Amino acid sequence: MYRSLWHLLIVQLLILIALLLPAIPVESEKYDFFFVVDITRSMNVRDYLDVNGDPQSRLEKVKADLNQVLLQLPCGSTVGLGIFTERMPNIMFSPIEVCSNYLEIRDSIQHLDWRMAWVADSNIGLAFYNTIRLMQRLELQHSHLVFMTDGHEAPPINPRYTPDFSELMQNSERIIKGIVVGTGEHGLSRIPKFDEEGVQTGYYTAEDVPHQSSFGLPEDPTQIEGYVPRNAPWGNVRHDGNEHLSNVREAYLTGLAEQSGFVYHHLQSAAAFSAALMQPDFASTAKRASRFNHIPAAIALLLLLLLYPIEQIFRRAAKQIHKASATQT
Amino acid sequence: MNIVFQFPWLLALCPLVVVPWISQFLPERLASWNQLVVRSDSSKRLDVLLRLTGSVALLCLLIALAGPQQIERKLQRIGTGAHIVFVLDRSASMDETFGGWMAGDDEKSKGAVAQELLSSFIDERPHDMFAVTAFSTQPIFVTPLTENRTITQAAINTMLSPGLAFTNVPKGLAMGLSLFRDQPVTGSRVIVLVSDGAASLDHRAQRTLREWFERYQVRLYWFFLRTENGMGITTVPNSPREDNPRVMPERYLDMFFRTLSTPYQAYEIDTPESLQAAIDQLDELENRPLLYQEIIPRSDLSDIFYLIALFCVFLLSLVKALEAK
Predict the structure, then answer these.
(1) Is A17 domain-assigned?
(2) Is B204 exposed, middle or buried (0-12, 13-18, 19+ CB in 10 A)?
(3) Does residue A154 lie in a domain region?
(4) Which CATH number does the domain housing residue A161 bear?
(5) Residues 6+ apart with CB under 8 A from A92
(6) What is the C-alpha to C-alpha distance for residues B131 and B141, in angstroms, rounded to an integer?
(7) In chain A, which among 39-98 make CB contacts under 8 A with chain B?
(8) Which of A93, A99, A100, A123 is the best residue to mutate to test the B interface, defined by the most B CB atoms within 10 Å of its own CB?
(9) Is residue A104 less than 8 Å (CB to CB) from chain B?
(10) Which comes out higher in pLDDT, residue B175 or B80?
(11) Which residue among A90, A93, A137 places its CB closest to the CB of B90?
């Protein structure tokens, strides 16, 4: 049988199988994410470093790392994009397949800009709440939410009016899983201030921003210094604080994540971010048609090589060496 | 022809093609005297041919295994169509129905109706390029001008999320116009403004918009989604006192659009049916010759190499079958 006609016929058969083998659906992992990015002003804080070691704003960092994630996600995964400012999320596009639409998705992410913000305040708790509600929509139903923010509320919120996540989670028709991604460093940094044309004119100072909530009614008026029920329900004393400086409010964000059953991740590197996203928790299996024709083809190649006797090759080589040594002496 | 390989490292095995030249798959026969075997030219040629066939078979199998792929190509074609930029109003009032009520189960919001009809419009126009921009208080870049329908459809879905804030038409239009900046002029260029309100334009905005519409040669379609009993484009003022852009922004925006040097059409839409009629008319009007790019997706070339390899091995087996026993 060895090196006989049969040998060649088997090689032919294997190549024929490689040619005709249809694509077989196999289970493979895929991920479905809906990214919602904070575009409020604190996202302009430059407390990250880009690849060249230059300061990079939180928003730019998010854009760069999202692009890396797009390249990491296996084909068949879907990605949608949204933005939020104040308390409302806005769908940019509903989730679509990542590989075949990569260029357009990348373009859309590149264009994210803080100047798209239709309102200037940040109310992250409510924005998160509204985004989870939005996730009930048909178009977003199969996706996991990735909520990216620095957690800097501006103006500070009144804890009395925080939304009730446990009720929302109980009433929702399906369990929404996701991840809260904290952006920014732990140390405080200044928030850049821009004019109408987008040119930086300086930084926010302590006088520019309120340092304490003055929304609604205080929880416990007796605690407030200078409380006058009608004229000064939040006290008549000036408050100083650090609200004009920004860092990632991790305690607040982990709190939000805990209430809603989300995971928290602090954005540091694109690799760690990708790893945090590509968790078994967020994976689902999809059938993807794959071709396995390389297996019979590889065997065919090996058999075809074996057709040529190895001894001959060695004999030939030995002869060459012999010849060479003969001419030398 | 741009060919890429899935596993280019496999090509490092290419030196294996010399194997048939230093070895022979037909068994050696002993001859009592070399002179008895005729060293004819034809047998020499046959020998070279056999070794070559073996080499080619090996090479083709190797190449096929390395996964050769023709990368995505773009072919220029001429068809009819347009470059269409949607400028979508995302103001809070888009959540209401045409009757001015909260959208419920029985009646859809203006945004949802517009989304549905635009979506079917996109499906009906095969050669058009679409871009989506949105605006409320500020303009929002959503997707670039592209042939890719999937992302355009996905972006139209933005109309389904709750409305945001106010209606800042000039900024939205400026964003829409800016998308034509680096595009080649071919076919018709169209901006479809879908809004349910208007805003007054200051002189600076008016000048910029007028200039850009002319420079980029863009035709404007305004689908004004009018709320029942609300102010319309053609509403005539009751008294001269009311005749100003603050009270009647729709009327004044329309008057400004009429002064543009490029063609302009306004459609006042107060029912889902009238929106369909307006879209049909746009479909009819915007059919100029257009250079468009047909995308031929990435294709697998390995089958060709498998075929060549199969043929070569078939030749070898023929020779083997004819071998003298």
Answers:
(1) no
(2) exposed
(3) yes
(4) 3.40.50.410
(5) A80, A81, A82, A83, A108, B140, B142, B143, B155, B158
(6) 9
(7) 80, 82-83, 88-97
(8) A93
(9) yes
(10) B175
(11) A90
Question: Looking at the predicted structure, is the pLDDT value of residue A293 above 70?
Answer: yes
User: What is the rounded distance in angstroms from the CA atom of residue B45 to the CA atom of residue B39?
Assistant: 10
Distance CA B205, CA B207 (A): 5
Residues in chain B: 325
CB contact set of B84 (below 8 Å; sequence gap of 6+): B125, B128, B129, B130, B131, B190, B191, B192, B286
User: How distant is the alpha carbon of residue B214 from its chain centre?
Assistant: 26
Q: Contact, B218 vs B189, CB < 8 A?
A: yes
* Of residues A75, A74, A76, A111, the one with CA closest to residue A92: A111
**A313 interfacial to chain B (CB closer than 8 Å):** yes
CA distance A220 to chain B (A): 33
Bridge partners of B267? B223
Is 0.95 topped by the overall pTM?
no
Distance from CA of A235 to the nearest CA of B (A): 32
- Which residues in chain B touch residue A113, judged by CB atoms under 8 angstroms apart? 141
Give strand pairing partners of A181: A148, A265
Residues A190-204: what's their mean pLDDT? 84
pLDDT digits (tens, 9 = 90+) for B14-45: 888 888 888 877 777 777 777 777 778 888 88
| Residue A116 in contact with partner chain B when CB distance is under 8 A | yes
- Asked if residue A304 and residue A198 are part of one domain, the reply reads no
Chain A interface, mutation test: which of B21, B133, B151, most A Cβ atoms within 10 Å?
B151
CB B73 within 8 A of CB B296: yes
The tens digit of pLDDT for each residue in A213-240 reads 776 677 777 777 777 777 777 777 777 7
Question: What percent of chain B has a predicted confidence (pLDDT) above 70?
Answer: 96
What angle in degrees, to the nearest 10, is found between the helix axes of A294-306 and B302-322?
30
The answer to whether residue A187 scores a pLDDT higher than 80 is yes
Q: Domains of chain B, with CATH numbers?
A: 3-71+297-322 (no CATH), 76-295 (3.40.50.410)
Give the per-residue pLDDT at A146: 93
The answer to whether residue A93 sits within a structural domain is yes
Per-residue pLDDT reduced to its tens digit, A307-328: 888 777 777 777 777 877 777 6
Beta bridge partners of A288: A26
Residue-number span of the structural domain to which A316 is assigned: 295-329
CA distance to partner chain B, nearest, from residue A212 (Å): 25
- Please name the residue of chain B whose CA is at the shortest distance from the CA of residue A296: B65
Neighbouring C-beta atoms of residue B20, cutoff 10 Å:
23
Residue B76, helix vs strand vs coil: strand
Q: Are A69 and A273 in contact (CB under 8 A)?
A: yes
Tracing tokens 């189960």 back to the chain, one arrives at: B105
Same domain, A47 and A186: yes
Q: Does A304 touch chain B (CB under 8 A)?
A: yes
Q: How many residues does chain A have?
A: 329
B153 → chain A, closest CA residue: A93
Task: Indicate whether this complex's ipTM tops 0.90.
Answer: no
